[in-house]
């Protein structure tokens, strides 16, 4: 009896093809949930090669992935050094960046790697090897880089193309999920997203180590003028965007996105676009009034909402996370003690309080290195003197400036000489000159000879006249 045996062919596992398929799915997820992310594609064999520079055009990276070929030479240490140099040249050492390293070999010697990087972020080592990892990767700790983490991603055993794709799906869902929350101001609220995603903040004091996380509800506490707010230190800055609901997709995690044909997702997106948004209203109000909004982003953690323009035509609503604590803005004091006054403050009590005396470092100093500098300042005083009474205030301003500079330098003979010049200028005035000119010049010359004029804090004031 002959029995026909049917043999089922199993598709062989190809690491490169599986990695390309998985990366396509990861790029689809990034383009859908983190549209403002910049992505670059780099390969390394004998030397580092940047296939695609940092861009938001993810289709270009997908096309270039199909052209990658395996090489017989690979140096992981030099590859990581080249990646670090590329990121530092593009973004500097203060911007968090994620590095996704796809390797075929499971054996990675952590002691030989030059880690951590000199910038904050994450290093994801995605292994495609068929064997279980023998030497586990230990986290790298560094006192100067507390925000740097290393993650190991490995498909389930036995390794297959489907398992590799699912590995990249989990990577995208966990580390590239868009943050969404509610912006609340009294009875008004709006669902928003922040780009980039906010990260927890760590604050180390003498006796404790505190971790601050961002709440889902960002509550606006009040509004303040930008000139009163100043430029406080910020932990991070984020772009505030109105929330758009995700579109339903099928075939999740297989590198392709197929929109649903039910029509419900399109209707929801259309309704969301036509719904009035408090986020848009707040942005327009802050821009027109030149103000900022103080909001509470967590427990004893505050932020500032303001309008920021990168060009003359386009502006965006930004959120700056301040240093954790109630005194993150020292000149405002305790943030919990801020309140709306029952009566408007008087003009002379406006904040900030200006000192009565003008500090020497708040104005330009006088430097007489050469004789021409003194002559130029005296000629400027005489030009204003000939145009009195129109230039009375300017005349006395320049006169006091030169007098104070002479006192600081111990050049008291200049004051006597300046009084003599004013007396001589008074006798040379033409007949068509205004009578106030001669009177003011005589008054200024007498004031210069007075002993009170030798005091640095004393100011010579114009003589009050009835015409």
Automatic annotation (TrEMBL):
<dbReference type="InterPro" id="IPR046471">
    <property type="entry name" value="IntS14_C"/>
</dbReference>
<feature type="compositionally biased region" description="Basic residues">
    <location>
        <begin position="251"/>
        <end position="260"/>
    </location>
</feature>
<dbReference type="InterPro" id="IPR045814">
    <property type="entry name" value="IntS14_b-barrel"/>
</dbReference>
<dbReference type="Pfam" id="PF19435">
    <property type="entry name" value="IntS14_b-barrel"/>
</dbReference>
<feature type="domain" description="Integrator complex subunit 14 C-terminal">
    <location>
        <begin position="366"/>
        <end position="467"/>
    </location>
</feature>
<dbReference type="GO" id="GO:0034472">
    <property type="term" value="P:snRNA 3'-end processing"/>
</dbReference>
<protein>
    <recommendedName>
        <fullName>Integrator complex subunit 14</fullName>
    </recommendedName>
</protein>
<feature type="domain" description="Integrator complex subunit 14 beta-barrel">
    <location>
        <begin position="176"/>
        <end position="325"/>
    </location>
</feature>
<dbReference type="InterPro" id="IPR039841">
    <property type="entry name" value="INTS14"/>
</dbReference>
<keyword id="KW-0539">Nucleus</keyword>
<feature type="region of interest" description="Disordered">
    <location>
        <begin position="249"/>
        <end position="271"/>
    </location>
</feature>
<dbReference type="GO" id="GO:0032039">
    <property type="term" value="C:integrator complex"/>
</dbReference>
<dbReference type="InterPro" id="IPR036465">
    <property type="entry name" value="vWFA_dom_sf"/>
</dbReference>
<dbReference type="Pfam" id="PF20504">
    <property type="entry name" value="IntS14_C"/>
</dbReference>
């Amino acid at each position: 009896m002959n029995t026909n045996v049917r043999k089922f062919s199993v598709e062989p596992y190809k690491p490169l093809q599986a990695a390309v398929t998985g990366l396509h799915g990861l790029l689809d997820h990034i383009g859908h949930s983190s549209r403002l992310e910049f992505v670059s594609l780099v390969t390394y064999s004998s030397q580092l090669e940047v296939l695609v520079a940092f861009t938001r055009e993810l289709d270009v990276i997908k096309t270039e992935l199909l052209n990658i070929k395996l090489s017989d030479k690979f140096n992981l240490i030099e590859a990581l050094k080249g990646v670090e140099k590329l990121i530092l040249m593009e973004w500097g050492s203060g911007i968090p960046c994620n590095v996704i390293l796809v390797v075929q070999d499971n054996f990675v010697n952590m002691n030989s790697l030059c880690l951590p990087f000199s910038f904050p972020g994450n290093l994801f080592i995605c292994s495609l090897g068929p064997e279980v990892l023998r030497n586990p990767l230990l986290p790298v700790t560094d006192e100067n880089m507390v925000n740097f983490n290393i993650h190991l991603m490995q498909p389930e055993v036995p390794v297959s193309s489907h398992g590799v794709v699912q590995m990249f799906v989990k990577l995208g869902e966990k580390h590239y999920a868009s943050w969404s929350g509610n912006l609340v101001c009294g009875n008004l609220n709006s669902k928003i997203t922040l780009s980039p995603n906010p990260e927890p903040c760590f604050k180390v004091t003498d006796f404790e180590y505190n971790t601050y996380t961002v709440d889902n509800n960002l509550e606006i506490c009040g509004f303040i003028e930008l000139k009163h707010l100043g430029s406080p230190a910020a932990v991070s800055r984020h772009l505030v965007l109105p929330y758009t609901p995700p579109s339903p997709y099928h075939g999740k995690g297989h590198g392709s996105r197929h929109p649903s044909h039910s029509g419900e997702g399109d209707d929801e997106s259309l309704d969301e676009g036509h719904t009035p948004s408090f986020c848009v209203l707040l942005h327009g109000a802050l821009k027109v009034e030149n103000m900022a909004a103080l909001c509470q982003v967590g427990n004893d953690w505050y932020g500032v909402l303001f309008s920021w323009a990168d060009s003359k035509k386009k502006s965006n609503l930004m959120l700056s996370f301040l240093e954790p604590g109630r005194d993150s803005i020292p000149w405002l004091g305790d943030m919990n003690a801020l309140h709306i006054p029952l009566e408007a403050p008087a003009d002379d009590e406006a904040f900030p309080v200006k000192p009565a005396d003008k500090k020497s470092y708040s104005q330009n100093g006088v430097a007489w290195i050469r004789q021409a500098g003194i002559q130029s300042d005296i000629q400027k005083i005489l030009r204003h003197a000939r145009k009195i009474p129109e230039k009375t205030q300017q005349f006395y301003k320049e006169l006091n400036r030169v007098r104070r500079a002479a006192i600081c330098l111990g050049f008291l003979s200049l004051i006597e000489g300046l009084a003599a010049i004013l007396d001589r200028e008074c006798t040379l005035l033409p007949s068509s000159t205004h009578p106030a000119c001669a009177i003011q010049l005589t008054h200024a010359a007498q004031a210069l000879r007075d002993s009170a004029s030798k005091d640095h804090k004393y100011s010579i004031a114009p003589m009050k006249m009835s015409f």
